[in-house]
Automatic annotation (TrEMBL):
Official protein name in the record: Carnitine O-octanoyltransferase
One term under GO cellular component: peroxisome
Domain Choline/carnitine acyltransferase: 23-81
Chemical reaction(s) catalysed: 4,8-dimethylnonanoyl-CoA + (R)-carnitine = O-4,8-dimethylnonanoyl-(R)-carnitine + CoA
Organism of this sequence: Oryctolagus cuniculus
Length: 89
């Protein structure tokens, strides 16, 4: 009985997944802004300034390159989050 309930719930949960639009990859700047906003309450002024510097270097360097690769790969993949997980492996 328990397995039957789990199966029927899963079928209903993902029933329309293929008909939903893919989520867009957010702009790098937006993601980095959200990151800085999330860090701010936990960092003192000095730590936050250093974090801003690191984020700026990332945005202008390897971050821009990685983001471009993500955008390219996401064009051919329905779920770009899955793409991220496979890149990290």
């Amino acid at each position: 009985m328990e397995n039957q309930l789990a199966k029927s719930t899963e079928e209903r949960t993902f029933q329309y997944q293929d008909s939903l639009p893919s989520l867009p990859v957010p702009p790098l700047e937006e993601s980095l802004k959200k990151y800085l906003e999330s860090v701010k309450p936990f960092a003192n002024e000095e730590e936050y300034k250093k974090t801003e510097e690191i984020v700026q270097k990332f945005q202008n360097g390897i971050g821009a390159e990685l983001h471009q690769k993500l955008l390219e790969r996401a064009k051919g993949k329905r779920n770009w989050v899955f793409v991220i997980l496979t890149i990290e492996k």
